[in-house]
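Most newcomers find our protein records easier to grasp once they have seen one. A record pairs a protein's sequence with a compact description of its fold. An example says more than a description, so a record of this kind follows:
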Amino acid sequence: IERRIRQWNPDAPIFHARVEPMAWIEESNGARHDPETTHFENAAAFCGLGNPLSFRRSLMWLGIDPVEWVEFDDHHRYRPTELRRMAYQFSQRGVQAVMTTEKDAVNLCESASGLFHPLPLYYLKVKLVIDREQEFADAIASRLPSR
């Protein structure tokens, strides 16, 4: 991407950003768990992202290799029948926890935790980290019209 941008504008400022895990959140009660010390064995994961590999990489970075992995289209709205079907599928594989993204947690139907019961459902809360953040903010501010 950088090379392509440089073809069109060799002087354009380019900044890099990454997603960093902040906490695992239990969907049923909001309890927070440290992402680096919470270990999931025999876990399953699902997501509906434009780039599901990004979530998978985050899990791998945290040392988690899901035994079951289900992908949906970006911005998928989860229906109870889908969650029940996944819960059954995951239970058959001996899964002990289910993980998804914070973005997907917003698109879950009501009582999603109950549909996965007795499997606990967690979502990964993340933050965006921008390298050279102050320089990035200054670059944006310098391009805004003055008041």
User: Anything to note?
Assistant: Helices lie at 2-8, 52-61, 80-92, 102-106, 112-116, 133-143. The longest strand covers residues 17-26.
